[in-house]
Write a structure and sequence with these properties.
This protein is α/β, with parallel strands linked by helices. It has eight helices and 13 strands.
């Protein structure tokens, strides 16, 4: 197995930290993976989610953002996704969640839960700030022939009047467990139950995600995943 390194610029120049350019190689070494080389473009793990068959989902807000790869067109990016990661089909969604500092990472909006099966939030309440974004994502997925499994959203989560990009979609799938961020929303139990239905072979638990969200991100953002050998 090999690791592929990509360029990173602090989510479009927002957050630059010492060690950012070294952590990928360090992680590969600690896992005993050969590094296949560094790709010639900017890419973050949370910007993509694949279904295991060559289909990948992303958002135009992030991957086409001029603060990432201003010299690359949509066609260029699709070619690089195939060249560097083997994805031969791309489902382009539009915007990510409102006030997401990552410029719309897809792992906060849409997650594959099986081949050609995409989990997406469903708006809860007339004041859900992301209702139009969810509807647009659903329409794009269905137009491409992707099956959609809807999960109730947390609804409007605001701190000091600022809408937060709270999402149950930022769950982590481990070998035996699925961990879902919850936010003290009246929809938490329904959200966790809906995700549990998508993973009948694993236990599913909800864990308060407000502290991680306050720093920007969620459980999947902070962990990502590594496929099991074999």
């Amino acid at each position: 197995r090999q690791a592929r390194l990509f360029g990173f610029n602090g989510w479009g120049g927002k957050y630059l930290m010492p060690g950012d350019q070294d952590i990928g190689a360090d992680l590969a070494a600690s896992a005993g993976l050969e590094v296949a080389g560094k790709a010639d473009w900017i890419l973050e793990g949370g910007a993509l989610d694949g279904d295991g068959t060559g289909l990948v989902v992303t958002t135009g807000q992030c991957l086409l953002n001029p603060n990432r790869n201003p010299h690359l067109s949509r066609a260029d990016l699709e070619a690089r996704l195939q060249r560097d990661l083997g994805y031969d089909r791309v489902l382009w969604l539009g915007d990510g969640l409102i006030n997401d500092h990552t410029d719309g990472h897809v792992d906060n909006l849409a997650r594959f839960v099986g081949p050609n099966r995409l989990a997406l939030p469903r708006a809860t309440g007339a004041d859900d700030p992301n209702a139009a974004i969810y509807a647009d994502a659903r329409a794009r997925a269905l137009a491409m022939g992707v099956e959609v499994a809807e999960v109730p959203s947390p609804g409007r989560i605001a701190w000091d009047g600022m809408v937060q990009p709270a999402s149950y979609m930022n769950f982590v799938v481990t070998t035996h467990l699925v961990v879902v961020p919850v936010f003290g929303s009246p929809h938490d139990a329904d959200g966790v139950a809906a995700i549990a239905d998508l993973f009948p072979d694993r236990a599913t638990v909800g864990v308060m995600g407000d502290a991680v969200l306050a720093g920007g991100g969620g459980f999947h953002c902070a962990s990502q995943q590594m496929p099991r050998a074999g």
